[in-house]
Each structure stands twice: as structure tokens, then as C-alpha cells.
Amino acid sequence: MNTPNQALARALAIACFASLLAAGCSKAPEPVMPAATPAVPAPPPAVTSVGNDIDDTVVTTRVKTALLADPMTKSFDVQVVTRKGQVQLSGFVNAQADIDNAMALVTKIEGVKGVENGMSLKDGKVTVGNAVDDTVLTAKVKSALLGDAAIKSFDVAVVTRKGEVQLSGFANDQNQIDRAIQVAKSVEGVAGVKNEMSVKK
């Protein structure tokens, strides 16, 4: 038979158990953490291709080498500029046959997709004095072009003969060509400017 103390102890135990049970049932469930997702490596940075520039440099070197090795063209100051395989020749030569020979020679070179002729025929003989003056003028024109913000970003070949400056190369647009001609004409000692530049395609 239970004593009053035992009955009281039992009642308290039941009350505590019920209280704990109620607390456990009402407790909010622990948030379930999602399984760790494996880290995905970041894609490698995009690499800018300079293949065209490298190819054009190789083609330009091949063309210059071939022109220097050819008996008919090695004595001429022929400028070579290449853009996406398109080669532009400029400078001054003695006769039309020299132009034709240079064009035919360059067309056969590996990597050349086309040839533009910007060469001109020489007008009279050049004296030593003319040659020195022309070299100085060429340097002045190149310096002026490099110093102009509108055109310094593209490659302009400059050849001078008896004060006449010939510009060749590939520009971004007609405005750059017009600006290059204007800058060249403004250089002291320049008797005239011949444009052989083309707009990039």
C-alpha cells in the first residue's frame, strides 16, 4: 500500500515526465543543413587570341625576305604591311616591270591571300643630298604620326622621294586616313603626300 509520501513522489515524477514530454514535442525541429555541394571550379579566364597578328608578322617577314633575295627588287625601298593575309606593297621603283615582278613574286608566298599595289615609279634621279633630306623627312613624318592621338594606334609605312611622302598601311576608317595625310602635309619640308592607305576590312 502506498504511503502519502510515495503517492506524492509518484505524482511529481509523472508531472515532470509529462512536462518533459510536452517540451520535447513542442520543440521546433532542428533545421536540416543541406548536404555540402562540392565547389565548382571557376572557368579559366578567356585568352585573347593574337593569332592574326602573329600570322601577319610572319607573312610580312616572308615577303620582305623574298623581295630582298630577288635581283630585280632587292635594291628598292619597298614597304610591306600585312592585314589578315592581305599584303600591301608601297615605295618607289624604277619601272612598271619592277612593280609587276614584285606583285608576281609576293603572290606566290605562303600565307599571302592577296596583294595590293601601292608602289610608284621614281621621277628622275635622286642625289645624295636628296636621299639625306628624304631620310630626315621620313623620320619627321613618322614622328608626327606617332605623336597624333587619332592615328598613332595603326601602322603607317612612310617612304619619301625628293620631298614627296608616300603613306601606306591599313587604317580603321577614312577619318584616320584623312588625318594622317593632313599631319604629313603639315611637316616642314614635305613637298607633297601620296596616299596608298586602305581601310581595314
Characterize the biggest β-sheet. 3 strands, mixed
**CATH fold category name of the largest domain:** Histidine-containing Protein, Chain: A
Instruction: Using the 3D structure, state the CATH architecture of the largest domain.
Output: 2-Layer Sandwich
**Spatial separation of the terminal alpha carbons:** 111 Å
Give me the number of helical elements: 5
Number of domains: 2
| Arithmetic mean pLDDT | 78
Structure in words:
- The chain is elongated.
- It has helices at 4-26, 51-69, 96-107, 128-146, 174-185; strands at residues 77-83, 86-93, 114-121, 156-161, 164-171, 192-199.
- The protein has 201 residues and is an alpha/beta fold.
- The protein folds into two domains: 50-122, Histidine-containing Protein, Chain: A (2-Layer Sandwich), CATH 3.30.1340.30; 123-201, Histidine-containing Protein, Chain: A.
- The longest helix has 23 residues, at 4-26.
- Helices cover 42% and strands 22% of the residues.
- The strands form two sheets. Strands 1-2-3 form a three-stranded mixed sheet. Strands 4-5-6 form a three-stranded mixed sheet.
- Residues 42-49 have low confidence and may be disordered.
- It is built from five helices and six strands; from the N terminus they run ααββαβαββαβ.
